Predict the 3D structure of the following.
Amino acid sequence: MKKMFYIALLAITIVACKNQKPTVQGYQGQGKSAIVSTLSKPVQKQWKGIWSFENETVFFSNDFESGRLNGITYDGNNHYTALITAENTPVNVSPWYAFKVWSNTTKTITLKMTYQDSRSRYYPKLSTDGINFIPLDSANFTGINKGTGNFGIKAVPEMIEIKLNIGTAPIFITAQELYGSTRVKKWIDSLVTKDFISTYEIGKSKEQRAMNLMQVGTGVHKKAVMVISRQHPPEVTGFLAMKSFIETLSGDSPKAQKFRENYELFVVPLMNPDGVDNGHWRHNMGGIDLNRDWQDFNQPETKSVRDFLVKKESEGYEFVFGADFHSTWDDIYYPIDTTITGDKGKIVFDWINNITKRLPQKHTNVKPSTEIKPTMVSRNYFFANHNMPAIVFELGDNTPRDFLKEKGKVAAEELMDLLDSN
Ligand SMILES: [Zn+2]
């Protein structure tokens, strides 16, 4: 136990050296991103294994794909404190966590979750199989140092205390549903059973994980749609909408069949496999926010997509639409203003309007950007370098999962209609 304590202490000491004030990102309109260097920085690799307590009767583990638990202490009386820290700092306020807990005997424990200088952004989800998740019963949830207001990081508690009934079967406690590289690859492989879908590697991440690309179409058409997601590991809701979007475009409907008669679809579902599998809050193994690297391309993940696009363009492809799926505090669309994109960019706004007509939401939340250089973010690079009308499609952390699925489907149907009428 002493050893665990020192590991936890070491983690706190290392990450406490740099302090970042929480800021609300996104909702006020996506302003110009600050220009930051994307040269690699050190990342603290997480200790992985099993912690045991109470004469080896209670166990915690972070030793699985996307796991994150940086330290845990026993405070007596069935009370534990978990330390969740980031891969490096400064970092966005998106404290990802994922761990398992079990016990030789059935008991109730209380677990305090702490997040270094961050706050409790993600409401805990529970699972017994790592596949199906349900939110923790609110009766077992207590916020500590509750936030102020009703939106964004300031509104959530600084820490939380959760009550768990544990037994011999491990329970997963996670920030969002688990979609690590293995599960994502399984999803890709399930689609590749269709004869018009193929998959191949376009590069490797820093830790040599595959950058998997999925191609929907037969390769005879030179008009194409580009989709990416998961530059930021915890943004699972964006991934889930993307998944439904791709499944619809790959589906058997007459609309989808017609779409594939004229267009190719290229998808990189997991832009940051190292960050996802290491349970990072935001960065890749180079310690960098990949969505700031679309100008200088210092990181292998962004480089592989750039090289892919350049190659496809040299083969005569014209990219007619691009989408980059993310998650934030609410559902938001970030297109590029038509003062920059002109007629070409109108399809993005027509698409947003058509989705909104079918799925009215209280806030439409459309925030066009008027500056795109230096490119830095994928959407700007897509337009500036490949003349591709593009959007950052943000889904809320807490958007109901059924709605995410429906939104992905409707977004795909409306895109197919617009491309068909063009
Ligand atoms: Zn993001």
In short: The first helix runs from residue 2 to 16.
